[in-house]
Structures are given as structure tokens and as C-alpha cells.
Amino acid sequence: MRSDTLDQSLDQFLNYIKMSKSGSSKTEDAYRRDINRFIEYLISLDVSSFEDVTKEIVMDYVALLRNGKIGGRKVTNSSISRVYSSLRSFFRYLNRYENIENNPVQGFKNPKTSKKLPDFLTLDQVLDILSSFDIRDPGSLRDRAILETIYACGLRVSEATTLKVNDVHFDQEVLIVLGKGNKERMIPFYPKCGRLLKKYIQEARSQFIKEEHGYLFVSKSGKPVSNRYVQYMLKDAGDRCGIPLELHPHMLRHSFATHLLDNGADLRVVQELLGHENLATTQIYTHITVDRLKKVVKMSHPRSRK
């Protein structure tokens, strides 16, 4: 049976996160999932107070998560790190606001995680996807415009779906994008993208819009398109083109960065275009380009052959 006290603490913590605006809705959802699952584990042990949670309980819980006995599948070090982060934040809140003196997570270190190189598409694959849309059809014109804009400007899918018409400055060929942490950045787009956006606004958006709300990309009912719609639409396009990859919109952002660096763009410029606070986040793309260069030399250089 669930403990009302434990659940109330979780609800109050989530409300605190929301009111203090210290996390996005995705962060809040992650906290809810992680802590709710931990509470379920505590209940299975007949632990009814956070004061009674020991370091051993936390260690056992993480071990069960890791081997899949909780949750049904094994989890990675990055997932374990997120769980630790959620529990740390939760117990800090309990210590500060609910007079809980116990903090069993204190002193635990995150496991080391290896940075996974981002998946990206070749230029030919990007062009195949973009050219798979029949822009004589208003819906296909919109979909092509969405993907072209994401690739042209290296946008996160949420940045694309929340673009406003007024964010597109055709005279200067730039977008004004509101990114993570409500930080604004200016991103140039190439002329072909600008022509496509004009065509979309004139020939498709004008048909779909019922009541003006300012959002650039809209569904046939006139509402702003969702992130999920873009995910499914790109996946369908990849299937049409026979691309043997699990496509997702962020892959176009990865491709944008990789293709720029492949063609000699300065790393700090790419950092600014992507809206990365830390240069190290952008540097992961240099590993991709270096790995590709090594592969070419290994395959093609006569002295590389055994």
C-alpha cells in the first residue's frame, strides 16, 4: 500500500521545482519517474519515512536497476547518473524544506559514462530526404520546409516547432531562435531555405491557418505542429528513402554541425550556431570528422594496407 506521506513529499517537491522554474517540463517528468519508482521500492521494503532510508537501501536499489530486476531492462551508466541526480535534488529539498535530517545519497558519485558520438546523415542522405517531398502538395511543402529549416540552421526540434513567423527575417536571411534557458541566438539560413519558407507561408500556411497565433509551422487544422509529429514525419521520410537508420530530428542537427566542420567551419562559430554554452559539447563533433578522416586514410593510403 502506498504511503500518503511519501507521495505528498514527492508532490510538494515537484511543485517546488515548477514554482522555482529550476527545470524544464522534461526535467520535471524525469524527476517524477525516478522518485516515484524509488518510493515504490521503499514501500516494498516497508519503509514509510525518508528518515529511515539508508545508504545500503540506495545501493541495493541502484544495483537492482542496473541489472534490470527493477524496470524490466538493464540501464546504462548515464541513466544511473540521472537517478542519482534526481535523488540528490529530492533529498536536498527534504533536508531544506521538510525537516528531514537524513541524506543517504550524500557522497555517492556518478558512474563514469563514455560519450556516445552523435548519429548523423551524409549530405546525400539529407538531400534524398528533402527531395522525397512533393512540394506541390501543401502538407508536403510544410514538411519539407520544417526539415529544411532544421538542417539549414541546426535547430532542436522544439526550437523549430516554436518558431514564430516574425522570427524569420527574410531581408537578412536569419532566424531569431529562442533556445535552452530562454537564450536568444541569431542563425543565418541559405537562400534556398528562404525561398522554400516564403513558398510555404504563401501557399500552405495561408491555407491551414484558421486563427492567427503567430507560429510558423502549423497543421492542417491551423494549430502549431508538435515535436512528435516532426519525429514521425522524418521517420516516414527515412523509410521512403530506404535509409537504414532509426531517424530522429536531432540527427539533422548533428548533421548540420558535422557538415559545417567537415567543410572547414570554425569550432567556436559552430558552438554559437548550436547554442552550446560549453565548447566541449561542440567538440564531440570533431571526433566524428577525425574518425572519418582516419577511416579514409586507412582504406585509401597505400601504406595502410597490410
Automatic annotation (TrEMBL):
Localization per record: Cytoplasm
GO biological process per UniProt: cell division; chromosome segregation; DNA transposition
Primary residence: cytoplasm
Statement: the UniProt record of this protein carries the keyword Metal-binding: no
Keyword Cell cycle: yes
Positions of the catalytic residues: R156, K180, H250, R253, H276, Y285
Annotated GO MF terms: DNA binding; tyrosine-based site-specific recombinase activity
Single GO cellular component term: cytoplasm
Domain Tyr recombinase: 116-298
Residue ranges annotated for the Core-binding (CB) domain, each copy included: 4-95
Lineage: superkingdom: Bacteria
Keyword vocabulary terms for this entry: Cell cycle, Cell division, Chromosome partition, Cytoplasm, DNA integration, DNA recombination, DNA-binding
NCBIfam families registered for this protein in UniProt: PRK00283.1, recomb_XerA_Arch
HAMAP family per the UniProt record, alphabetical: Recomb_XerC_XerD
Quaternary assembly: Forms a cyclic heterotetrameric complex composed of two molecules of XerC and two molecules of XerD.
Function: Site-specific tyrosine recombinase, which acts by catalyzing the cutting and rejoining of the recombining DNA molecules. The XerC-XerD complex is essential to convert dimers of the bacterial chromosome into monomers to permit their segregation at cell division. It also contributes to the segregational stability of plasmids.
Family: Belongs to the 'phage' integrase family. XerC subfamily.
UniProt name for this protein: Tyrosine recombinase XerC
Species this protein is from: Anaerorhabdus furcosa
Gene encoding the protein: xerC
